[in-house]
Write a structure and sequence with these properties.
mainly alpha, two-stranded antiparallel ribbon, 78% helix, 259 residues
Length: 259
């Protein structure tokens, strides 16, 4: 009986677990190499006096990132994922979006509290450099953190990677693996820890609705809330009522397959 059930499960899988994980890891690494190569390209263009000012380099960096995402999306859509993803409709969207906002605030506040307890893990050079850029060029931080990151990262990690992994394993395992890849994508220990947790939540929201705009909205709201929690005074005691309210609102969520 167990062997028969095992055979049925294996037949239901479209691809093997090893292949799914290998392809996903390879695509993340390939994408990381493309993004990291922008520094060498900027240095080359600067040496021939095409990108002399830092502002022009930042504009080129944003355009390069978007172009890199488009290349990866093309590869995933036409050569890896291929199949159309089923989409769900949501009833009670007002409750749902309000719950997402509360959840974003809860996650960002928890992240802020988390960082206060891991002071022994210093920020990486990349983190310090990015913070200096945001302080000097706020428009770059706004475009990068509030537009490019929520949209492109969600399409890549949730729509493509997560859906691809679900072809080989149970959704809960696919969510965890995609979240770990999302954390590793940030290339430093501090961000790996909280980005992995955030990736799990984003994956759960996407899996529940199968609509990428909801995880994009949560990612966007998280980045906004992180900024507000840094600027405004945060009271940790607010985590309790916010958690209760967010759980209640999500419990009211009702989804059905789109016809």
């Amino acid at each position: 009986m167990f062997l028969c059930r095992r055979m049925i499960l294996l037949k239901q899988r479209e691809i093997s677990i090893v292949k799914a994980i290998f392809i996903s890891v390879f695509m993340v690494l390939f994408f990381e190499v493309i993004l990291l190569s922008q520094n060498q390209i900027i240095s080359l263009l600067s040496s021939i006096h095409l990108l002399e000012s830092q502002a022009s380099q930042l504009v080129f960096s944003i355009v390069y990132q978007i172009f890199s995402y488009i290349i990866i999306f093309f590869i995933f859509k036409f050569y890896i994922l291929k199949a159309k993803v089923e989409k769900y409709k949501i009833k009670g969207k007002i409750f749902f979006y309000f719950a997402l906002i509360l959840l974003a605030y809860l996650l960002s506040a928890s992240t802020l509290s988390f960082f206060t307890y891991i002071k022994y893990i210093p920020p990486s050079d990349a983190e310090r450099f990015f913070e200096e850029l945001i302080y000097k060029y706020p428009w770059y931080g706004a475009i990068s953190a509030l537009i490019v990151a929520p949209i492109c990262e969600e399409i890549f990690f949730r729509y493509y990677v997560l859906n691809y992994l679900e072809k080989a394993m149970k959704p809960v395992y696919a969510i965890i693996v995609s979240a770990l890849l999302f954390g590793a994508f940030h290339l430093n220990l501090r961000q790996f820890l909280f980005a992995s947790v955030l990736g799990v939540v984003l994956g759960m929201v996407y899996h529940k609705t199968k609509d990428i705009k909801h995880s994009i909205f949560l990612h966007f709201a998280f980045n906004i809330a992180s900024f507000l929690n840094t600027v405004l005074l945060f009271e940790p005691i607010l985590i309790i009522p916010i958690t209760v309210l967010a759980v209640y609102l999500f419990s009211r969520l009702n989804v059905r397959v789109e016809e």
